[in-house]
Amino acid sequence: MPAQAATPQTVTPCQKPPAGRVKIGFEKLRDGGYAPLLGHKVGVIANVASVDNSLTSIVDCLHQAPSVQLQAIFGPEHGFRGSMREGFSEPETQDPDTGCTVYDIYTKIGDALKNILKKSGITLLVFDIQDTGSRFYTYIWTLFDCMMACAELGLPLLVLDRPNPISGLDASGPVLDPRLASFVGRAPIALRHGMTVAELARLFNAVFVKKQTGQKASLDIIPMDGWQRDMFFEDTGLTWCPPSPNMPTPLTALVYPGTCLFEGTSFSVGRGTTMPFLYLGSAAVDGRTWAEAATKAGCAGTAFRDVWFTSLVDPFKNTLLHGLHCVVTDRTSFDPIATGMTLLSTGRHLAGSSFWRGTGKTFDQLSGNTQIRTLLDKGAEAPALAALWEKDLASFRALRQTFLLY
């Protein structure tokens, strides 16, 4: 018989970490003999970065554990194996290593998601995916959607915590306007949320899941040992495994909250190069002029140089682009949101009305605020833009504080 569901929002206590590194939730589950999984038919939401300190996949560990019955695997954006580009996922298939069905749950919501979970036959769902600390990185919204489904199905959920790679000292940037909700932002949180996935799960469950479903999910959490809020990923002693194809390094994750906003413009964000989100460019601007303008505007902890590059992916495939390289010189003083706003302001000035992608809707969904684009069109600079979200950010910071684990 399946073990009893955990009481809503239980948290395993933190312990002293291994010498020199953080111990992630997955490792604590493993070293504890997988106790919360015993008696369950287990499903796991995982991807290519869901590994332990020996770089072994959680799926392989669960499959090899005699006491664990691994029933199903669920893949997010890019797929369980991480083989697909942005906006795509791997189709349902059978995993050759475990024999388990790998279900595609990217963008699945409501009845469609509930039907997949019921079809899988699981009695416990585990989430173990590395986030990047940005609202529009979609894995946290796969978690959100699964929490909604779990609440309605009475299916227990176990979240294994991992570091916020860009530190968790504070939240910054615009808070999502609920009218702009999409799969790059389901709920009103700050663009740089400053939380771990387990902390987000606690917030989601207590505020948004309960509000939308009338009940909380049966949520259990295994936190990390030794993680501190001022840690960047490089401070954790862990090995970075890219959680998505264009997130090759922790540095990419650090600039991402600001430079990914250019996905809503006519500029390239460097996909298909060795420097995604660090290179930005267009065939319609002079990169040297842009780099000089950004430098003159002044962005703490960063420098800019002009670069030429050719993307290998659509929509800029085989097009020579001129732009700039965002070089982080001091990660502690670097502010990705302020830097992003400065680059948007100077880039919009140089590109003119051709700056936006389509109608601008994509940018609005990414930023979470329609007024930013309006003010940029009027020539606003970064300080004026920041004033737009001060009040909402203060409210989110207060709300966030309640759910922090570290």
TrEMBL record:
InterPro entries assigned: NamZ, NamZ_C, NamZ_N
Domain of life: Bacteria
Domain Peptidoglycan beta-N-acetylmuramidase NamZ N-terminal as annotated: residue spans: 42-249
GO MF terms, alphabetically ordered: peptidoglycan beta-N-acetylmuramidase activity
The Peptidoglycan beta-N-acetylmuramidase NamZ C-terminal domain, residue ranges: 254-406
PANTHER family: HYPOTHETICAL 460 KDA PROTEIN IN FEUA-SIGW INTERGENIC REGION [PRECURSOR] (PTHR42915), PEPTIDOGLYCAN BETA-N-ACETYLMURAMIDASE NAMZ (PTHR42915:SF1)
Coiled coil: none
Name of the protein this chain belongs to: DUF1343 domain-containing protein
One Pfam family, short name: NamZ_C
